[in-house]
Amino acid sequence: MWKLQRTERLAGYGFVLPITVLFAIFVGYPILFAIYLSFTRWSGFGTPQFTGFANYTRMFNDPVAAGAFLNTIVFAVVTTIIQTAIPLFIAVLLSRVWKGLSVVIRTILFIPGIISFVVSGVLWKLIYDPNLGTLNNALKAVGLGDLAQHWLSDPALVMPSIIVVSVWAAIGMNMLIFFAGIQGVDPTYYEAAEVDGASRWQQFWYVTVPGLRVVTAIVVSLNLMNGFKVFDIIYVMTGGGPSHQSEVFGTYLYGLAFGSTAGSIPQLGYGSAFSVVVMLLCGVAVLVQITLTKRANR
Amino acid sequence: MHGNNAARNGSSFMRSQLDRRTLLKWGATGAAAAATTGLLAACAPTGSSGSGSGGKTTVRMWSWYTEQKDTLPAVIKAYEAKHPNVKIESRIFGTPDQYLPALTAAVSGGDVPEIFAPHVRAITYGEQGISADLKKEFGSSFLKDFFPSTNQEYTKNGKQYAVGWEAQTFGLFYNPDIFAAAGVDGEPETWDDLIEAAAKINATGKASVSISCNPTTSALDFFLPLITQVTDDPEYYLKLDQLEKGYAYTNKPVVDALELNDKIVKAKVFQPGTTGTSGDQSSQLFYTEGAAMLFAGSWTPQGLIQNASPEFVKKYKIMKTPAIKSGARHWTADQAGAGFAVSETSKAKDAALEFMKYLYSEDVYADLMNKSNSMPSTQSAAQRVTNPQIKLMTSWLPDGCPHIPFGAGSSAAGDPLGKIFDQKESPAAVAKEMQAAVVNARG
Amino acid sequence: MTTLTTKPPTVPFDRPTTGRGRRRMPVGKSFASLILIAAAALTIFPLIWLVLTSLREQNTVFGGPFIPTSITFDAYSKAWTSTNFGLHFLNSLWITTATVAGVVIFSALAGYAFAKLRFPFKNVIYVALLATLMMPSTSLIIPLYLQLKSFGLLNSQAGLLILYISSSAPFSMFLMRAFFQTLPDELVQAARIDGAGELAVFWRVVLPLARPGIATVIIFQFLATWNEFIYANTVLQNTDELPLQPVLFSLVGQYATDWPTLTAGLTMSIVPVILVYVWMQRQFVAGMTLGAVKN
After folding, report:
1. What CATH homologous superfamily does A62-297 map to?
2. What is the pLDDT of residue A261?
3. I need a surface site. Which of A178, A229, B256, C11 has the fewest CB within 10 A?
4. DSSP label at B56?
5. Who has greater pLDDT, B152 or B77?
């Protein structure tokens, strides 16, 4: 018994050794450094100047930060809900359809996820262009010209427009996970249910859905984390504009460190404070996933 | 679940054997993984190795000046042929957003490229000892040929930390066809004339002036020259930029300039959604004939040649930035947004300086600027400009005035300015916000 | 414009639109196909624009009809030569393949360990590794740069590779662990009783059953690494060593972009990823039938 435990222990440590060592050196330490920076004032050269909680106090009083915080949370929550529901729905549909069509549809739906967010952002910025974009042109062509909007420059529409793009890009990935999850449900359960006389939707409800609990928990937490961290797609489409209406933490901290908000002096310390807040938010997402998984496994 | 008792007792010897074997196996696996990675790394089809290989000095040159993307390599080749022990590594990024992380990282790592585009950080880097004092390195006779405004913008306390590469002036690019269709005669001379013309143009369903206010620093390009127009003093903003004693954004000239800006916006001179329009979008609106005019700088002709239809390229014209009243000077934004600084701490600094001198030598520089339809920063090269649009815009340099926030925190004035374009605040309130924002950003 | 609007109102369907408590009436095959085809059409529309633009003449990108009247492949040859496409494509290929290999090995090992093995501090290490997923990538640019510098790994593809593996493995580990958790513990126990050492259990018994998981990881990782841009841009200085994405993006200028060339380059760069996806799809199917044969 002891031998078994010892073997198992050694195996455990041995197996996780490579990833942990790499993590510690090339991820863990930089994260600690970034956290440290959040308590300093640093422009990228010279030594960081320790300022305690000054950056966090500044964050509380910064109106742009408040707006960015709201946008970040709204973006993460809304995209998570949509990006969990739709791919699940589609994955279910896919499992009902002829196999050849299923593969083609899966590949097509996956393609938006293949292009990097930067490219997607550039593409959609063009589509949304109020004067040249295909969206407004298409609306005009079918006589709905009144619905043509300034999708990315109207403060009320900019976040929803961006959310559409995020959903478009994320469907494929999330659907893939759900699809794998559905396939992973043991067919014998379905057979047993059918023998018991369950209808198709009863099978779905009592076999598929419970089997997907863990996968759903994963998808939810991943989408939440990606939502909290979002950067490329928004930055490329609007740069956080107009006038910070689409600013999120990811874009704001980038601007502070490298962009025009920085002006002539990068503010790496202040920017790091935002990344710490994002990290805390993501920590919440991880807790959500762990809780949901525990409940599912009960 | 737990091991079978019999198996456990009877085969403990077996288990210890397995331990050693499995340990060896894990070790082998781990080593294999590491070795594979290492092997792959060694077999990487890497390009040329780092600097100093084979006795060559490497001079790195980083910028986002895509205008010379196709024409610079030939110049570099010619130089390398003459100087076989120097290698110039030119890296042209696409946009400042792609460039600045790399530059910021290089600076923080203490390994600054020999020649680099300083963006708005020229002076702050200079004061930190990152970019060299070119007045000392090049001497005043070399710098004399440059347009004064391009030297001034990079100078503080008698030291100059960069030289202008592409100078620029701003103007109103316009579409004569739309003017004719709207019944607009000739070129508006003053802002009031422009407002009048805009009313006529808007009536035909087109936007009048296409402008980019995203990011808000582009809006500053429009607004800051208005301060010079109000004061007739191009030095005013230079001092305001550095927040010198007695200069604040709440001063009367600034508020007057804001009110003028406000008046222009109120008259619907600009397209809707300016704060959501990026630079390339504003240009697109112009060359797809959605707007009669485009407020932009002299980098535009090159972009139009690349993207607009040949017919459009033939027909568009350029006019001066309107003046504040009839007969007044057409003060126009004119600093060099594109410049080059030299790393103070690099070992290859001297080689870099040599190359810079070559690059700016009259024949090489004028030829390069002409081939890329760009505005040179030196007077000798300016006289040899062939592109008619560039020539025209170069002739406006004597009326040039500052528009780039080089000072610490100055670019923070952009966000409050955006409220004028969004018509969300009164000029007086915006002035106060600008002052507060800049002071705040200075820290 | 979004898939949300593809549900036709005439279907006898009452579905709550919130998250998980979803009811579904028996959905016919043809109805499902209809919706899927519509969704696919809307989804692929921007990409059709992408490919069409790569075929347009230089100055007709805007202001022309959606389907270009004249087609030219000039942009493709321009993209190939002006960006030295071949070299950077190969760079991307080797860096991405090596990253995927490293990530799959390390994440499978660790994922299995976290899922099936017992050892002290297991959860502490696991949560620490998860921290990798919680930081916005842009905030780590400078710290990572400095760390690579202190190890002398800057400006080398090997350094970038190590960076990629280190920062991507935890996510893949997360996925692999989830997959391994769906496998029954009895499997591992039985193998141990049969006398297999831990590594053998992993290698010969558990791993073959994790094909869908590995296929998923391969797809995710290939994609993520192939498209990565900002770290490659910052860590590598020698332009010859750059992978494809940074080079393609230098075509996006601040004021003017060469759209046909850019879209041509992007279209060409998408091909390998699609190939990997299609190839991995087959692994999925193979894995699924294997997964069904348990016990």
Report:
1. MetI-like (1.10.3720.10)
2. 65
3. C11
4. P
5. B77
Q: What is the pLDDT of residues C155-168, one digit of tens each?
A: 899 999 999 999 99
Interatomic CA distance for residues B248 and B237, integer angstroms: 10
Q: Among residues A174, A210, A169, A175, which one has the least CA distance to residue A102?
A: A175
Which of C134, C201, C234, C266 to mutate to test binding with chain A, by most A CBs within 10 Å of its CB?
A: C134
CB-based contact (8 Å) between A54 and chain C?
A: no
By DSSP bridging, strand A40-41 and strand A49-50 are antiparallel
Structure tokens at A278: 């994002």
In the DSSP assignment, the letter for residue A205 is I
Mean pLDDT computed over C56-81: 82
* Mean pLDDT of the C222-243 span: 91
pLDDT digits (tens, 9 = 90+) for B20-33: 444 444 444 444 44
Tell me the backbone φ, ψ of residue C292, rounded to 5 degrees. -75, -20
For chain A, domain boundaries: 62-297
C-alpha angle B312-B314-B315 in degrees, rounded to nearest 5: 70
d(CA C14, CA B145) in angstroms, rounded, equals: 77
ipTM of the complex: 0.86
- Residue range B188-203: mean pLDDT, rounded: 95
| Alpha-carbon separation of residue A13 from C109, C113, C117, C189 (angstroms) | 10, 8, 9, 19
- Which positions in chain A touch B33 (Cβ < 8 Å)? 18
In C24-156, alpha helices (H): 29-55, 74-82, 85-116, 122-130, 141-150
| Closest chain A residue by Cα to residue C169 | A19
Residue given tokens 């396939």 in the structure block = A183
Contact between residue B438 and residue B413 where contact means Cβ atoms under 8 Å apart: yes
Distance (Å, whole) CA B43 – CA A273:
41
Q: Indicate the Cα dihedral angle B126, B130, B132, B133, nearest 10°.
A: 20
CA distance B351 to chain A (A): 24
- Is the preceding peptide bond at B416 cis, omega within 30 degrees of 0? no
Identity of the residue in C95, C230, C256 whose CB atom sits nearest the CB atom of B303: C256
First to last CA, chain A: 28
The string of DSSP letters for C196-259 reads --HHHIIIIIIGGGGHHHHHHHHHHHHHHHHH--HHHHHH--SGGG--HHHHHHTTB-SS-B-H
Helix axes A99-114, A63-96, angle to 10 degrees: 160
Closest CA to B108 of B121, B90, B89: B121
Contacts of residue B367, defined as CB under 8 A and 6 or more positions apart, other chains included, come to none
3-state DSSP assignment of residue C10: coil
pTM here?
A: 0.85
Which chains sit next to B, with 3 or more Cβ pairs under 8 A?
A: A, C
Please, what is the Cα angle at A180 between A178 and A182, to 5 degrees? Answer: 70
* Cα–Cα distance measured from residue C268 to residue C76, given in angstroms and rounded to the nearest whole number: 8
CB C229 within 8 A of CB C245: yes
DSSP secondary structure letters along C119-141: -TTHHHHHHHHHGGGGS-GGGGH
Distant-in-sequence, close-in-space partners of B92: CB < 8 Å, separation ≥ 6: B63, B64, B65, B66, B68, B69, B72, C250
| A165 part of contact set with chain C, CB < 8 Å | no
**Which chain C residues contact residue A27 at CB under 8 A?**
131-132, 140, 166-167, 170
**Peptide bond before A242: cis, by omega within 30 degrees of 0?**
yes
Which residues, in sequence order, are CB contacts of B24 under 8 Å at separation 6+?
Answer: none
pLDDT of residue A118: 84
**Class level of CATH domain C84-293:** mainly alpha
Residue-wise pLDDT for B267-287, tens only, equals 999 999 999 999 889 999 999
